[in-house]
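[Q] Does anyone have a clean structure-token version of this?
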Amino acid sequence: MASQPSAEEAPKPLDPQLGAAAITPPQSIPDPSTLILRLLTPAEKEASWITNSVSWAGRLTQSDYVAREAVNGKKKKSGRDAQFS
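[A] Here you go.
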């Protein structure tokens, strides 16, 4: 069972670029048998890429980062990335 942070520990910043936003640990960890894993919808993927672009895009614009992730996802789906590994 994972240990929970003590009450004295201060919340850690989510991302240095986001400033005051902090991660709040869950009050309890759900029973694994109640979790359902599924593939993201295209809209959920794009929302995730937009959110992550703050930390992962580097010098790319947000739209260039999202386009790159979409292309990379298509390569993985078709199996073409295996030739580069």
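[Q] Thanks! Anything notable?
[A] The mean pLDDT is 75.
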